[in-house]
UniProtKB/TrEMBL annotation:
<comment type="pathway">
    <text>Cofactor biosynthesis; NAD(+) biosynthesis; quinolinate from L-kynurenine: step 1/3.</text>
</comment>
<keyword id="KW-0496">Mitochondrion</keyword>
<keyword id="KW-0503">Monooxygenase</keyword>
<comment type="similarity">
    <text>Belongs to the aromatic-ring hydroxylase family. KMO subfamily.</text>
</comment>
<feature type="transmembrane region" description="Helical">
    <location>
        <begin position="401"/>
        <end position="421"/>
    </location>
</feature>
<keyword id="KW-0560">Oxidoreductase</keyword>
<keyword id="KW-1133">Transmembrane helix</keyword>
<keyword id="KW-0812">Transmembrane</keyword>
<dbReference type="InterPro" id="IPR027545">
    <property type="entry name" value="Kynurenine_monooxygenase"/>
</dbReference>
<keyword id="KW-0472">Membrane</keyword>
<dbReference type="GO" id="GO:0006569">
    <property type="term" value="P:L-tryptophan catabolic process"/>
</dbReference>
<protein>
    <recommendedName>
        <fullName>Kynurenine 3-monooxygenase</fullName>
        <ecNumber>1.14.13.9</ecNumber>
    </recommendedName>
</protein>
<dbReference type="InterPro" id="IPR002938">
    <property type="entry name" value="FAD-bd"/>
</dbReference>
<feature type="domain" description="FAD-binding">
    <location>
        <begin position="7"/>
        <end position="313"/>
    </location>
</feature>
<dbReference type="InterPro" id="IPR036188">
    <property type="entry name" value="FAD/NAD-bd_sf"/>
</dbReference>
<keyword id="KW-0285">Flavoprotein</keyword>
<dbReference type="GO" id="GO:0071949">
    <property type="term" value="F:FAD binding"/>
</dbReference>
Length: 424
């Protein structure tokens, strides 16, 4: 029977999912080599790339607990209830995970090492090292955790019967910041996700530990293009988000807005997530999603937890583990990708609809009276570990019950009215 110490794994990508995967596997005794094409993030003054604040919920916290990290770190909750989400900075969490992974003597991390290609016949891969030399490497398992534009997945695309699709939404995002007040306090209520819904676009704000807020503006690219002068920008904010101008600061708003161009948002699906017993992709490399359900990181972390469970269940037999991972994860990953796209419509548009708000209140009321029988979709996704695909199935069942009850009430009410008029 194979043991953890007999398994040698190479992980491509030292971001959130890659570093957590290295930490979990390292804790098991697996020999891990982690390759990251950037410099060590812990040594960098400025980090380029995405910085949307992350929403850490039950699924992500469960994976962190598996790595022995969940209780070590302090995050900012934005719900006073026991069912809370934690707002956490990407860099802060990435640094913590890398440090935790390095504590295992069986984990090696190589920075400024870029993955180049994979030789399917030999089971070997090439990396461009920090010294500028191309090096040939091999391991029993190669795990791609290298994000939405995964180079590992790119190698898998060369093979037949690998399904892949990507979809860019028409909206981009740009990040702003609300600083602390002059007295060093939060400028708004800190225990909430703040949303400015405007039907075709929206702005959100999440709290940070330093009492600032990370503000993200989501808009069609055409609208971003139209705001090409400071005057147009300020006029737009006066019309759409007037209360945010004194919070952000006029000059800071102008500086931050024009500092970087808006970034694109992509949803990616592929299948399978593995190649024989040699390659596996996790996180955004397998299922990149738009950020509107706050589950991208949580889903990636859940991938790591599932892999850990399967390693134990199948006694580190990769021939069984990798196919089982794809079979178990594919439907759930597709489900959360679809939910994330739907939730953008909900956040920017439906939250202003009276019908939607009434239904939301009814769902919450039913959940209060029947907490196990009736669970709102958001609660299932965010505050439970129920499989994503099962969350959708249960929501569809609850919708059918809701509509049936409404029709029954309408028919009964109509019958009573007819009966009363008949007596008259």
């Amino acid at each position: 029977m194979k043991q953890a110490k007999d398994l040698h794994v190479s992980i491509i990508g030292g971001g959130l999912v890659g570093s957590l995967c290295a930490c979990i596997l390292g804790n098991k005794g697996v020999h891990v080599k982690l390759y990251e094409f950037r410099d060590d993030i812990r040594q960098m003054e400025v980090v380029q790339g995405r910085s949307i604040n992350l929403a850490l919920s039950v699924r992500g916290r469960s994976a962190l607990a598996l790595a022995g990290l969940e209780e070590e770190k302090t995050f900012v909750p934005y719900d006073k209830d026991g069912k809370c989400i934690y707002s956490v900075g990407r860099r802060f969490l990435n640094e913590a995970l890398l440090t935790a992974a390095e504590k295992n003597s069986n984990v090696e991390i190589f920075f400024k090492n870029k993955f180049l290609d994979y030789n399917f016949k030999k089971g070997q891969f090439k990396v461009l090292g920090s010294d500028g030399e191309i090096k040939q490497n091999s391991s029993e398992l190669l795990i791609g955790c290298d994000g939405a534009y995964s180079a590992v997945r790119g190698q898998m695309l060369k093979l037949p019967r690998f399904n892949y699709s990507q979809f860019y939404i028409d909206h981009g995002y740009l990040e702003l910041c609300i600083p602390p007040t002059d007295s060093g306090e939060f400028a708004m209520e800190e225990n909430y996700l703040h949303i400015w819904p405007r039907h075709t676009f929206m702005m959100i704000a999440l709290p940070n530990q330093d009492k600032s807020y990370t503000v993200t503006l989501f808009m069609p690219f055409e609208m971003f293009d139209q705001l090409n002068t400071p005057e147009k920008l300020i006029q737009f904010f006066k019309e759409q988000f007037p209360d945010s101008i004194p919070l952000i600061g006029r000059e800071k708003l102008i500086t931050d807005f024009f500092k970087t161009p808006p970034s694109a948002l992509v949803s990616i699906k592929c299948n399978p997530y593995h190649l024989d017993d040699k390659i596996l992709i996790l996180g955004d490399a397998a299922h990149a999603m738009v950020p509107f359900y706050g589950q991208g990181m949580n889903a990636g972390f859940e991938d790591c937890e599932l892999l850990s469970e399967l390693l134990e269940a199948y006694c580190f037999d990769l021939k069984k583990i990798l196919p089982a991972f794809t079979e178990r994860r594919y439907k759930d990953a597709e489900a959360i990708c679809d939910l994330a796209l739907y939730n953008y419509t909900e956040m920017r548009h439906l939250v202003t609809s009276k019908k939607f708000l009434v239904r939301k209140k009814i769902d919450n009321l039913l959940n209060a009276f029947f907490p196990k029988a009736w669970i709102p979709l958001y609660t299932m996704v965010t505050f439970s570990k129920l499989r994503y695909s099962h969350c959708i199935s249960r929501k569809q069942m609850q919708d059918k019950i809701f509509i049936t009850v409404l029709w029954s009430i309408a028919v009964i009410g109509f019958s009573i009215i007819i009966a009363l008029f008949t007596r008259i």
